[in-house]
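Narrative of activities, Objective 1.

The group set out to show that a structural description can be obtained from nothing but a protein's sequence at a throughput compatible with the screening campaign. Below is one input-output pair from the validation batch, recorded exactly as produced.
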Amino acid sequence: MAELRTRPRVAVHYRLTLRNDQREGGGSTENVSERGAMLSTDIDPPLISGEAIEVEFDLPERGKVKVDASVVWTSTVLPGMVGIEFTPPIPEALASHIQRLLAGELREQEAS
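Output recorded for this entry:
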């Protein structure tokens, strides 16, 4: 199977809150890239592909950072696991933090 990822990603776990017009839930990141993230969520009912959401990340040294995103895939094997793509513009606090992660400038204990 061909690799579909076009951007490097880094495994990191941040707490987050997800919202849309109808509901709110929590979760954490499994990995992030410049364009999106894989999330483990507890939102009910589960998110569906194509759904627009707001994600509020709790970043170390940065605090809470909100970004709009869309769900691009949902796992049929792991309940609550979804892939999201950030909707531009991505907040500078989030974009620069991800760049530092990808460059190896942040260690895991600083990032979790």
